[in-house]
Structure formats: C-alpha cells, structure tokens
C-alpha cells in the first residue's frame, strides 16, 4: 500500500478527488477560487475538524482523524524544494463564516496570513461588496502539471469532476482572470484578513 492508498482508505479522501490530489504533488501552478470554504491546501487541523463535524454530525470523532491525515498529506507539497505556485482568490464571505469555537476561524485566518507571505503563494480577497462577479457560479481549481494541458476541477456537495476540454478550461481561466481584477491587491487582502481576524470574539 503506497502513501496515497493509505490516505484514501477509510474516510481519508474520496475516490473522485484522487486525480486532483496526485496532480497537486507535481503541479507547477495551482489557481483556485473559493466562495464556500477555505481550500484544503490552506486548512488548519481545527478548521478541517469543524467543517467535517458540521457535514457529518453522526460520524465518530475518530473518523475525522483520517480526514485530517489526508489534508496534511496533501499539504506536504508546500514543503517541497520547488512547490507549485499557488494563487488563491478567496471570497470574503469565507472569512466571515463563524464556528461554535471562535478560535477555529482565528487560527485559520492566521494560517492564511502566514501563507500569504510565502514566496510562491498569492492570496487575494474578493470583497463581498463586488457586484455580480464571475465567481457566483461556484468554486473551482485550475491545475497545471508538466507536459500536459491544464485542467479544471469543480466540486459540488457530494461529488466532483475534472474537466479537460481545452475550451472549457479556457473559459474558467477567463473567469479566474476576471475575478482577479475584482479582488483586493495582495497587501490590502492581507490587511483585510487581519481586520476580520481582529473582529472575531
């Protein structure tokens, strides 16, 4: 059993996501827009547990250990000598979400702020006041791996799909570019995250 087989066992990771998780490990660039949750590569352990407790309230606490392990396994790509360039456009509403334990979101925003200072990571906040922006259709991830065309991954509540048709990928690339033009610049995004973190009580 290899490392991926281990994290895919039990509750670790859904089978439809395996291609994406493996592609992350060799990717040269990952561009992601999220309007619901902080993406997996950026999640803290506390955040992982909180969102899964909400999604699966009947599941035993021990089952979440597998999910945490899977997230942490994916995040090891950030510790490589040459990690992928990460570009995250985060809808402001994600930062405004609250959990029963206020510390969950405080820690998660701190993690985002710290990551935003890494040389190959760029995080921008799309203000909630942005009118009718292109990301209202949903979250998505664009992944570029060596010697292959980029592909886009789109996830819903219960499943996900990788789309590889070049015209479809090009459409998502245009959406990402449009969203980037609506987002706050990196320094202003960091300041906004610090402001939101400071408002959590």
What does this structure look like?
By secondary structure, the protein is α/β, with parallel strands linked by helices. It has a single domain (14-38, 81-199), classed as Endonuclease, Chain A (2-Layer Sandwich), CATH 3.30.870.10. The protein has 8 helices and 6 strands. It has helices spanning 3-8, 18-26, 45-55, 61-75, 92-96, 102-115, 166-182, 186-199; strands spanning 29-34, 85-91, 121-126, 140-144, 151-155, 160-163. A 6-stranded mixed beta sheet has the order 3-2-1-4-5-6, sandwiched between helices. Strand 5 and strand 6 (160-163) form a beta hairpin. Helix 6 runs antiparallel to helix 8. The model is unreliable at 1-12 (pLDDT under 50).
Labels describing this entry:
six-stranded mixed beta sheet, 201 residues, globular, alpha/beta, Endonuclease, Chain A, 8 helices, 6 strands, 16% strand
Nearest-integer average pLDDT? 89
Encode the helix/strand succession as letters: HHEHHEHHEEEEHH
Which residue ranges are poorly predicted, with pLDDT under 50 across at least 5 consecutive positions? 1-12
The helical percent reads: 40-55%
CATH third-tier fold name: Endonuclease, Chain A
Class by helix and strand content? Answer: alpha/beta
Distance between the termini: 45 Å
Rg estimate, integer Å? 16 Å
Major sheet size, sense and barrel closure: 6 strands, mixed
The tally of strands reads: 6
CATH class: Alpha Beta
Overall CATH architecture: 2-Layer Sandwich
CATH-assigned homologous superfamily: Endonuclease Chain A
Q: For the largest beta sheet, what order do the strands appear in spatially?
A: 3-2-1-4-5-6
Strand content: 15-25%
Q: With helices defined by DSSP (H or I, 4 residues minimum), what is the helix count?
A: 8
Number of domains: 1
The dominant shape is: globular
């Amino acid at each position: 059993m290899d490392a991926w087989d281990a994290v895919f066992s039990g509750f670790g990771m859904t089978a439809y996501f395996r291609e994406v998780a493996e592609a992350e490990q060799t990717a040269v660039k990952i561009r992601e827009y999220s309007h619901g949750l902080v993406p997996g590569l950026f999640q803290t352990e506390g955040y992982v547990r909180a969102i899964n407790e909400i999604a699966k309230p009947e599941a035993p606490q021990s089952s979440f250990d597998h999910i945490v392990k899977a997230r942490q396994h994916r995040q090891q790509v950030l510790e490589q000598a040459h990690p992928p360039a990460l570009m995250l456009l985060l809808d402001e509403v994600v930062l405004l979400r609250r959990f029963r334990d206020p510390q969950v979101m405080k820690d998660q925003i701190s993690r985002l702020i710290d990551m935003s200072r890494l040389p190959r990571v760029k995080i921008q906040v799309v203000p909630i006041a942005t009118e009718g922006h292109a990301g209202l259709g949903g979250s998505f991830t664009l992944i570029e791996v060596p010697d292959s065309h980029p592909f886009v991954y789109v996830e819903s509540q219960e499943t996900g799909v990788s789309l590889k048709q070049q015209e479809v990928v090009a459409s998502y690339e245009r959406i990402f570019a449009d969203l980037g033009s609506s987002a706050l610049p990196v320094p202003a995004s960091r300041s906004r995250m610090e402001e939101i973190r400071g408002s959590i009580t």
